[in-house]
Structure formats: structure tokens, C-alpha cells
Amino acid sequence: MDVPCVRVRPTAGEGTRRELAALDLIADEYEITVEDGWLYIPVVAEPEGYDVVAHDVPPREGQTLPDDILGFAPRYERLGDIAILEEDSAERAREIADALVASDLPVESVVNRASKVKGDIRVRDWDVLAGSTRTVHREYGFEYELDLARVYFSPRLATERHRVVEQVEAGERAFDMFAGVGPFAIPFAARGAEVVGTDLNEVAIDYLRRNAARNGVSDRVTAIAGDVREVEGYDDWADRVVMNLPHSACEFLDAAVALAGDDCTLHYYDIQHEEDPFGPGERAIREAAGSDYEVAVETRREVRSYAPHELNVCLDVRLTRRR
Q: PROSITE patterns from the entry (predicted)?
């Protein structure tokens, strides 16, 4: 079965395997294989900085997979010990859920998406087919306790989050405007940054505080429940600002510019038509910065396909205050 694999020469295999294991990225249900002078290590997400290819690797010997029970390979995402389905048929969803629970995969709960993300606090409705919506998700060596029914979290963005985290340096002051349970804030703090995270969702902020303690960075994380536009005391403060609210981040650009210090990197997430995915965001940032800042777009990145002809993108933008 073709799955994403990190490809390395066998001489580098054990070191690479240890690195990927420390980041909780190895797909344990598949065998590590050697073919044509290459070692293929199956992974659950595509890490930056590695040669990642799709390769046909066998299931781990002795494991019963849902494919064995169903006779077909079901589509699902893993978040901690939760398997997430997106099935229109309730009967098919139930069949897949039963197979997932009966398999040897580390799955305790199965949920099926019952709505789109909705409301200001960005939560979904779920049909719980087994277990519950609560879990602990591990990502790049960090642990996040969360409840899918009460907070927003996307495992699909793990690689993108890690890309941004790798840019953070000790001593920075970083502000996550829509922090959720902390997948940006906590790794930032672990790299030595002083971090402020805000969110409208009070439950998410509670999880952010708990996850900061869980990962040993409570002393460097300040969590604030509320609208970031109403938070006081951080004007001209930030060296780095994350704006991961792609449907409406443009509405918060004035607040982001107010937070920015003399030299600030802005990570601006947007969803736009594929014909011009970066232009609207760049124009909005330049308008918000006005004459106060020089604006330099350092990275234009397509994060993923969001819908037909629509892209989820990120602009890494450096704001430098004019003297």
C-alpha cells in the first residue's frame, strides 16, 4: 500500500528513525522496508527537512488492520487515539468504526464529522461512534490534551506548524492571536520565546494553560480568553505574530500591526481562489501597515488545498518600523 515514507540510505536509517520517533511521526502500523538501496520509514505526516515519498510498504506483520476486516481501505484521520471519519452514510460510518475499534490500531474512539466548522469559536458537531471526543494528541514531541467537541484542532496542519516553529529563536516575544489549545504557542515557548496566546474560546484557553503545564513551559506562556482586539498592554510588543484564522484574519490586521514591535514577523493565513491566492492578503497587510512599516514578503506558501479551486495559504511577512 502506498503511504508517505521518509527515504534515507540505510547507513542513516537508525539515526533518522530515532529522530522521527522522538517527533511521534512514525506510522507504526506499517513495516520499515529496504528496497533498491533505500530505507523507507512510514510516517503519519510529512516532516520538513526530509525526503518524503509515497512508497508501497506492507502492513506490520501480525497486526489486524481495518482493511483486513472490511475488505477495503477506509479513509480516516488520526488525532491521538481518535479516528476521524468524513462519511455521508451513517451505515458505512458505523461499519468502519466497528472495524477500527476491532483492529490492532491504537484507536479508542471514532467520530464522524456531522457539520462544518461553525461559529466564532470554530467547533464542529460530531457523531460519536465509539469512545468520546477527548484525547491527548502527540505532535513533534509535544502533547496536547483537547476535546474535539469543544475546541478546534486540525492534525493536517502539523507540518505547517512545525515549519513556523523552526523559525523561532530564544528570547523572542511571540503573540498567537488565535491560539487554541497551544500547537503554536507551546513549541514557541519550548524554544525559549516569551509567548502570549489569546482565543475567544474559554475552553481552549483552559486547555492551553493545562497543555503549557503538561509540556513544562507554563513560565513562558500567558493565556488570555477574549477578543484579541480588546486585549491591552501589548502594543509594540511582539517580534512574531501568528494569525491562523484563514477565513477572517484580514479583519484583525489592524490589531496585528498594533502588536508588532520595531521588527516583527507576521504569519498570515488565508483562503483564496487559486488564480490569485496571495494577492488579497498581501494587499490587506500593506494597507494595514500604512506608512508606519516597511513590508517585505519573505515566504508565499501553499499550505494545502481547501476546496475546489481554493487554497489555504500562508504569507510570512516582515514588518520593519520606519524611522
A: SAM_MT_TRM5_TYW2
